[in-house]
């Protein structure tokens, strides 16, 4: 504990000048009962609008007598004191922990409850006991009066004014703001060169909307308040790009601040030079911690006097000299929390984590916890190895934000969209579509809100733009996401990290992930591209902010569809653009066979000259047919003797053994044929086309049996027979499914609706429809 200290006598000329500027008045309170005693000198700010000092509301003071026997109760229950230049917020015995005295809210609350107490006091005994007595200096500079100033108060530190308890009712330390008598200390601490722009209350940072992220926030606060010796000292929240990590971190800072538990914060940002400099992290944390402990601040002063350039040293040196060792010598009376957000946005953050994380695991910061957030990038994940953490009895708690149940995230995003677009008359079905588009990506929802509300009178038109699937989004609509994805890719594909060959390999891997119709494993990608498995895995690991490996089937998935949309748009992705048709051609010049049980390839790939558009097994599994060139789709007959195929607007049949054409082409479609298949008995063929029709053909005489089935409003992508051949089902880009009678060609009932996007594939089960 520090000692109560001050200047002797009536004050220096400088202090008197300061008193004059504050508008203070002297109160000479003589005692009629002890007229021979020295007068006590107390300065108090005049009550606004009064000619003489007035008692403060809720301010209990007993200053009638100024004898050595007088006991003065000054800080019970009172408000907003200024002692020796230190600002101490207390309202009726309750503090506003962690809140700056400069806060407009706090100043407003205390506007009429201000008092300035200026006393020339000097004592060698710290105030650490209840009813502690100290010497009072009179105007002639003599020690004459002993006062009990802090009735029923305990464990506080006056020089710099850190309160732990007062009247038994303040449970947390109030920020220590150094007073005007300590410019030297402030000047020395400034040598830490803190990154002020990295503090949580500097700049505009979003917070969680009321009612969202409630379980997550409560879980983190519960961890922070857990004072058990076995409680984890660290908490790492990991989340993919755009999942709202920084918003949660800011909200946590505010909640911790309200509870008096926030010791400091560092919000990393690649956009701000000082916020991405790994040298600034530890010094900035130390600078903020110095506001909480006078002893710690004094210890840092000594270190900085000996080594003033510590802020320029490497993190291991900084950690040892200004954090680990010094904090042990000045622990807090309660647990405090340091928040470090967006580790992935700080350059060379590994140099910090390499030393900080082991120190956290080893409990080297008594009374101090660390809450950290980042994307799931491998160079960061390496320091938070889950297996190792589990073995060490959870000295570091971890939480994967992107693994939160999708229904919970969607509920939160729904509230977020309703809050952001609540002033607009958007129908519920349109809000549902916006919610569906957002998926589990908060940044996507935020982009939608910004785009729509920024449209002014065009807002409703912008809603329609987003809902229109056929429309290519404009730059204003996608700017935030474009910046996010381009930044991630530039970092991963940086020429400082990859050779030109590795750069091209990585792009081909990304293109393959986003263009394969069905997600495939790293093993299959390596075989398709004829690359080493390690090269594929390295790229996927580097891109864990936007891609992930499903643990159940080991397939690689994109976290959100917006990443693929970005990559296949030349105007958005620019030099990283993926030409999906060209890449499909690259992949399609090989024909491969896989074991359906293991997913392993069987044998070597079949090489073909042109792009493979479609493949099919014979019914007995002995042969494979592949469509390439201008043949886009094919299928075997049920007996395996014939193959039906389509090219542009025509259908043809060939011998499965010789490949020779059987009969003439089937003509009649006016648009590109997307699907063609035999009936179960082989007597009929059906086809679906861009001309919005379904046609039924006789497989033996090359003629249409019935008039084209009409009913779809857009192109037909897929057709199939029921197992008994009595029904036909079709799917279309009009989002509808239709069922047809195979014996008449007529539609059965109304179209089946419900899909929000085009229907690409259909099938009927074995149950006969009625």
TrEMBL record:
Alphabetically ordered keywords of this record: Repeat, WD repeat
Listed PROSITE patterns: WD_REPEATS_1, WD_REPEATS_2, WD_REPEATS_REGION
Pfam families the record matches: NPHP3_N, WD40
Domain Nephrocystin 3-like N-terminal: 212-375
Region (Disordered): 1-58
Domain of life: Eukaryota
UniProt name for this protein: Nephrocystin 3-like N-terminal domain-containing protein
Source organism (scientific name): Tetrapyrgos nigripes
């Amino acid at each position: 504990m520090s000692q109560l200290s001050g200047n002797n006598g009536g004050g220096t000329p400088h202090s008197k000048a300061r008193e004059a500027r504050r508008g203070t008045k002297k109160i000479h309170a003589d005692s009629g009962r002890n007229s021979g005693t020295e007068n006590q000198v107390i300065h108090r700010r005049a009550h606004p609008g009064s000619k003489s000092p007035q008692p403060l509301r809720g301010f209990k003071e007993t200053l009638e007598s100024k004898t050595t026997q007088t006991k003065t109760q000054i800080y019970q229950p009172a408000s907003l004191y200024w002692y020796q230049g230190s600002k101490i917020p207390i309202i009726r015995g309750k503090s506003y922990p962690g809140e700056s005295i400069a806060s407009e809210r706090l100043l407003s609350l205390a506007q009429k409850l201000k008092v300035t107490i200026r006393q020339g006091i000097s004592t060698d005994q710290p105030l650490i006991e209840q009813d502690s007595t100290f010497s009072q200096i009179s105007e002639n500079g003599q020690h004459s009066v002993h006062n009990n100033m802090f009735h029923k108060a305990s464990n506080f530190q006056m020089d710099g004014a850190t309160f732990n308890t007062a009247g038994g009712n303040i449970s947390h330390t109030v920020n220590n703001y150094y007073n005007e008598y300590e410019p030297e200390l402030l000047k020395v601490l400034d040598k830490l060169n803190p990154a002020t722009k990295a503090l949580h209350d500097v700049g505009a940072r979003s917070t969680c909307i009321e009612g969202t992220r409630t379980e997550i926030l409560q879980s983190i606060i519960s961890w922070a308040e857990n004072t058990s010796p076995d409680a984890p000292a660290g908490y790492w929240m990991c989340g993919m790009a755009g999942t709202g990590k920084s918003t949660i971190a800011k909200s946590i800072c505010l909640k911790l601040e309200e509870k008096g538990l926030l010791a400091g914060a560092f919000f990393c940002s690649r956009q701000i030079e000082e916020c991405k400099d790994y040298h600034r992290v530890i010094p900035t944390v130390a600078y903020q911690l110095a506001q909480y402990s006078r002893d710690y601040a004094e210890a840092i002063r000594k270190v900085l006097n000996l080594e003033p350039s510590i802020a320029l040293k490497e993190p291991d040196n900084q950690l040892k000299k200004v954090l680990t060792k010094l904090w042990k010598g000045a622990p807090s009376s309660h647990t405090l929390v340091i928040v470090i957000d967006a580790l992935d946005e700080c350059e060379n953050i590994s140099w910090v984590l390499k030393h900080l994380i082991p120190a956290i695991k080893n409990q080297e910061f008594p009374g101090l916890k660390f809450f950290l957030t980042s994307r799931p990038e491998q160079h960061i994940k390496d320091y938070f190895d889950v297996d190792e953490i589990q073995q060490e009895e959870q000295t570091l708690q971890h939480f994967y934000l992107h693994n939160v149940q999708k229904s919970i995230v969607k509920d939160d995003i729904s509230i977020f969209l309703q809050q952001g677009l609540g002033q607009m008359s958007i129908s519920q079905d349109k809000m549902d579509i916006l919610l569906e588009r957002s998926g589990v990506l908060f940044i996507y929802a935020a982009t939608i809100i910004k785009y729509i509300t920024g449209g002014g009178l065009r807002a409703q038109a912008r809603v329609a733009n987003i809902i229109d699937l056929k429309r290519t989004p404009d730059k204003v609509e996608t700017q935030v996401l474009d910046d996010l994805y381009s930044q991630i890719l530039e970092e991963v594909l940086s020429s400082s990290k990859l050779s030109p060959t590795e750069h091209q390999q990585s792009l081909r891997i990304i293109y393959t992930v986003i263009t394969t119709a069905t997600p495939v494993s790293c093993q299959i990608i390596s075989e398709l591209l004829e690359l080493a498995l390690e090269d594929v895995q390295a790229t996927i690991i580097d891109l864990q902010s936007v891609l992930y490996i499903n643990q159940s089937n080991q397939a690689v998935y994109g976290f959100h569809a917006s990443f693929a949309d970005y990559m296949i748009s030349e105007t958005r992705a620019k030099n990283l653009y993926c030409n999906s048709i060209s890449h499909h051609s690259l992949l399609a010049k090989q024909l491969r066979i896989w074991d359906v049980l293991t997913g392993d390839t069987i044998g070597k790939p079949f090489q073909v000259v042109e792009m493979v558009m479609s493949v099919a097994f014979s019914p007995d599994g002995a042969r494979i047919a592949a469509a390439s060139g201008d043949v886009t789709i094919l299928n075997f007959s049920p007996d395996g003797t014939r193959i039906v195929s389509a090219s542009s607007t025509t259908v043809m049949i060939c011998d499965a053994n010789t490949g020779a054409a059987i009969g003439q082409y089937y003509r009649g479609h006016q648009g590109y044929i997307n699907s063609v298949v035999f009936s179960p008995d082989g007597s009929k063929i059906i086809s679906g086309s861009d001309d919005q029709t379904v046609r039924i053909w006789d497989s033996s005489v090359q003629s249409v049996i019935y008039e084209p089935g009409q009913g779809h409003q857009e192109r037909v992508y897929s057709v199939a027979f029921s197992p008994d051949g009595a029904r036909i089902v079709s799917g279309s880009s009009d989002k509808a499914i239709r069922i047809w009678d195979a014996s008449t060609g007529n539609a059965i009932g109304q179209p089946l609706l419900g899909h929000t996007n085009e229907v690409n594939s259909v099938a009927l089960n074995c149950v006969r429809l009625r």
